């Protein structure tokens, strides 16, 4: 396809890209607050069980929609496993480490350390999809990571287990985003098939792991099941878990894995600063606040470049970023 054709495609789908990005940002913001309430405020002991119920809801909603002909995706056969692998493994890793890190870390530090997902996603796109990026985007990412390191260096509530979980979550999120973008183009799957079969393949192993580790017993015997407020928050978290996964797939479908990650950074701007005043588990220090500000500023600059770029960027695995239209239209310009 020509450069002009690419530009027309981008302009035509621009609103869908923006709306899907805003939808993902809103869902991500809400579920972070709800999960924090369930796992920290109510001290619910089982993030695995929470993830299992979210998967069950995903299966029920999508299967009911398929029966009613509201959505379409391929019926199960032996080819499905090969089509979707390794997404189920990445999904469960992302799900479990995300919930665990939400429980272990304060809200601002959780959102700061999530910024490393941007760097990891860019690295994966460079090595797996052979992409290149303009230096101004790379510099803004450096600012994001630097700010995150400054903020984390003064975390007065340092939690080694929490930091380990969040960095693993970053890696799983980056890999899951890149592979989701690739799998969305697989014949027979599409947006809804990716969601449904992801949940289907991982729910049984996750349930067995929860039972084997005693996690399921802790969830069943939790003392606040009779508390209407807790039950409401728990059910809301389960519903938002499904909506969040759908919004991620939708954003990746209309954008790229990297853009989806950038949208998460935009959301984190609001979450991090709200978390300073709401939640009660943030220990203020000027170094930490400075790091937060640097990190968030880098995220905003990066987001501005992404959503205001004049040159169309191919996110389908193309190796070039810019195309000169002067003279030889096929001439490529190396960016990095």
UniProtKB/TrEMBL annotation:
<dbReference type="InterPro" id="IPR004853">
    <property type="entry name" value="Sugar_P_trans_dom"/>
</dbReference>
<dbReference type="InterPro" id="IPR050186">
    <property type="entry name" value="TPT_transporter"/>
</dbReference>
<feature type="transmembrane region" description="Helical">
    <location>
        <begin position="80"/>
        <end position="100"/>
    </location>
</feature>
<feature type="transmembrane region" description="Helical">
    <location>
        <begin position="284"/>
        <end position="307"/>
    </location>
</feature>
<feature type="transmembrane region" description="Helical">
    <location>
        <begin position="192"/>
        <end position="213"/>
    </location>
</feature>
<feature type="transmembrane region" description="Helical">
    <location>
        <begin position="163"/>
        <end position="180"/>
    </location>
</feature>
<feature type="transmembrane region" description="Helical">
    <location>
        <begin position="228"/>
        <end position="250"/>
    </location>
</feature>
<dbReference type="Pfam" id="PF03151">
    <property type="entry name" value="TPT"/>
</dbReference>
<keyword id="KW-1133">Transmembrane helix</keyword>
<feature type="domain" description="Sugar phosphate transporter">
    <location>
        <begin position="18"/>
        <end position="303"/>
    </location>
</feature>
<protein>
    <recommendedName>
        <fullName>Sugar phosphate transporter domain-containing protein</fullName>
    </recommendedName>
</protein>
<feature type="transmembrane region" description="Helical">
    <location>
        <begin position="44"/>
        <end position="65"/>
    </location>
</feature>
<feature type="transmembrane region" description="Helical">
    <location>
        <begin position="112"/>
        <end position="130"/>
    </location>
</feature>
<feature type="transmembrane region" description="Helical">
    <location>
        <begin position="21"/>
        <end position="38"/>
    </location>
</feature>
<keyword id="KW-0472">Membrane</keyword>
<dbReference type="GO" id="GO:0016020">
    <property type="term" value="C:membrane"/>
</dbReference>
<feature type="transmembrane region" description="Helical">
    <location>
        <begin position="137"/>
        <end position="157"/>
    </location>
</feature>
<keyword id="KW-0812">Transmembrane</keyword>
<feature type="transmembrane region" description="Helical">
    <location>
        <begin position="257"/>
        <end position="278"/>
    </location>
</feature>
